[in-house]
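User: What would this chain look like folded?
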Amino acid sequence: MFEVQTDTVMTLPKKKKQQSSKFNWTDFEKEAVERLQNGDKFGGKDGILAPMIKRLLEASLEGELDHHLSEEKSSGKSNRRNGKQSKGLKTGYGKIDLETNRDRSGTFEPQLVQKRQTTLGAGLDNKIISMYARGMSYDDIRTHLEELYGLEMSKGALSQITDKVLPVLEEWRTRPLESVYAIVWMDALMFKVRKEGKIEKRTVYCVLGVDSEGMKDLLGLYISENEGAKFWLGVLTDLQNRGVEDILIACIDNLKGFGDAIESIFPHSEVQLCIVHQIRNSLKYVTSEDEKPFLKDLKKVYRASSKESAEYNLEELDKKWGEKYPVVIRSWRVNWERLSQYFKYGKEIRRIIYTTNTVEGFNRQIRKVTKSKSVFPNDTALLKMVFLAAQNITKKWTSPIPKWALVVQQLAIHFEGRLELRINIGDDTKE
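Assistant: Here's the prediction, encoded as C-alpha cells.
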C-alpha cells in the first residue's frame, strides 16, 4: 500500500525548446563524472544527486515559465518575468534550495514543483511512512533523515505525513468482506495512551479469518477502553454489516460472555475455546509443587484421541485433584462443551483450532513494532501504527494455510451446504 520508492521519477516538460539553451548538459555531466571520480557519495547528505536534481528542476521550471509566458503573449495578455524566489524542497536525496522565477501577473502555476509543495513526489513520504510502520519513533525518523539526507523535519510535519494513511485506514475498515469464513480467530492487545495528561489503557481488537480458499486475512481492527463481551458484540455486528453471513468455527479465549456474543450474531457458528488459555488459567490456582504432576494428568484430557476418552480422563482428574482444586475442575466442566469441539475433527483441523496461536502469533509481530512506544499520544496514533504494522505483516500472506486441501474437504463434510468449494472438474463432453 505504501511502498518505499527507491527512485524518484521526474518528467520534464516537452513543450518548450528554450530549455536546451539555458542548460548546459555537457558541463552538467562533466561535473557529475568528476565528483564520482573524486569519491563523492552518490545519494544522501552532501551527495551528488541533490545538486543534480536541483539543476534539473530549475531548468525545467524555467521551461515551464517560458511556455506559460508564450501562451499569455499568444492570447494577448501582458505578462513577464518578475525576479526570483527561493524555495526549500525536501527529497529522498537531501534538501534542495530552488531558485525559481516569478511572473508579474502571478498567473504562473508550476506543475513539476507546485507553489506550496515542500517534498518532492511520494518517494520521501513513503520512506517516512515505511519507517513509522516498522516502529521507528518520530525522533528516530528525524535523526535518520538528518544523518542520511541532511533534512530537518519537525514532529508535526512527520505526523502530517503519516496522517496520510488515515483515509486509507478508514476505507480498509469499511471494505466489504466475504460472505462465509471457515475459521475466525479473535483476540485483543492492550496498549497505553495519553489523554488529558493521564495514562489510560486501550484495547485493540483483532479479527483474523480464513476464507474458503484457505487464505488468511485481517478482517478488522477496533479500539476500546477495555476488553469485554459487550464490545465484541459490536465488533461481530460490524462484520455482519460488512457482508459476513456465516462463520463455521470461531476460536476465542474464555472471556466471560464472549461465546454467547458470537452465537447471538452467528447462531450456527461453533465456538472453540482456546485450550492453552484454559491451561494457563488453571495453573494459576495450582501450587508450584503440584504443577508438574497436575499438568501430567491434565494432558491426558486435552491430548486424548477422542472426546469420550477425554471425558473419562477428566473424571479421573476430578477424582485425584477435585477435592484439592475444586475451582479448577469446575472451570473445565463448565466450559467443556466449547473446550471440546475440536475432538470431532481430524488432526489437520485440530491443530488449527484448538488454540488461538494464529492470532497470537500475529499479535506478537505487532508487539515487535509497537514495543518502542510505551505510551501513544492518542488513539489515532495507536491505531495508525497498528494498521501500518498489520499491512506489512499481511502482505506476506500469499499462500493458503498448511494442508488446506485436506482441511477444507473435512469442513465441507462437517458443515454440509455452508461452505462452497470452488473445484474445477474437467469435462470432455463437447457441445
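Confidence is low (pLDDT under 50) at residues 1-21, 423-431. If you want, I can go into more detail on any region.
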